[in-house]
Amino acid sequence: MKSSSWCPRSAQNNETLSAAQRGRDSSGMDARIGINAEEGVVIEINVESDSYFADFVEQWDSTEEPARSLLRAENWMPTAIIAQLNEDALSDIAYINQGADGLGQLNFHFQDAENGFNSEPDWIGSIDTRGDMQLVDIDNDKLLDLLRVTGEGNERSAYFYRNQNGSFDLEQPNQVMRFSGYDVRLNVIPLEQGSAPLLNVSYYTIPVVDAIRNASINRSQLLFGSDDVGENQFFNRRPDSRLDESFSAANVRGLSEQMSLQYDIDGDGRKDAIFVTENGTLAAKKINEDLTIQSQPFWEYISPKTVFEFQVLQLNQDSKPDLLLRHGTTTTFLVGAP
Ligand SMILES: [Ca+2]
Ligand SMILES: [Ca+2]
Ligand SMILES: [Ca+2]
Questions:
Q1: Residue 133 CA, ligand 1 centroid: distance in Å
Q2: Which of 228, 220, 229 is nearest to 179 (CA)?
């Protein structure tokens, strides 16, 4: 494990390392893209371990949050959550169980200043529990709305429901969007504090012609704003911007983690697009006012080892973002310096 500091305030490279020191070939990584009839595109990434016993035993300090959690809390919906569901300042409870009709049931218990919570739910709604569900504030009114994503194969449908002071019309989504691609992910992101959230949709596709000649895979980022929405809808029908990147065996490192628009890397109050480059470094691009992602990164961190995964964390008490970079067998912490 390595710990160093970096300056999030200005665009910079890690100048203590020359590009030649990146260790392109010493990362012990081998990647291969193949295509077969049964599995489609297969990406094999082998990471060589320094020792067969590396990470075999891990000691956890029970008084501290584990740095490497088995579940990332932001990626799953727990059985019951505490959330702002109606128009008062008190937190409420939401959970899903099986209703009397045998179908899924969404339950809300509203908090009352005098009596706390009722044992019976204050609002229930019958809901199809297939697919992924998320309670997230989509329209920036502080009340959590519902996003449900379902589908099979490479077809995905996203259903958006608006929270109306503690209830949803689950029969009638406010907006439905459909996407074709693999590993379709939807993220609702306020680019700046208090600004209207945008929708970031990312997925992979396989170009048919290229796939035969030269195995490759495309990664797309769509950004939907909300300045031209239809009545009662959340997001524009057409994406405001689209970024398509092509990957083959030569630049497969860039595929190891999706681009993230969740973090403000330079502390200017506006989220940036962070991604792993094809050289296995970490870089960030600005997101313009028109929601296009700039073509050139304004920041790149050249690590001595290939980066496979990253997280932006608050490791200390200052409000500057800290970075956790995962390599093949090691982890680097970068603590933001003023
Ligand atoms: Ca409430
Ligand atoms: Ca809302
Ligand atoms: Ca920024």
A1: 21
A2: 220
